[in-house]
Amino acid sequence: MMQPFIVEHYLQKDVDVYCGGPDTFQGVVEACADGVLTLTKEGKFTHIAIDKIIAIWAK
């Protein structure tokens, strides 16, 4: 359910992603497929399981 929402509203946007506790990730949404969100920041990729995301917001 969240994957189409992320693709439609956040693809190629700079975001913060909160996964609980101290787990907050930042970067540009490069892809969202197969249950995985891919962010890039400073040339490095971060892959996050969509089912672990609690909140996402644009910067």
TrEMBL record:
InterPro entries linked: DUF6897, MM0924_fam
Source taxon at top rank: Archaea
Pfam families: DUF6897
Name of this chain's protein: Uncharacterized protein
Organism: Methanolobus vulcani
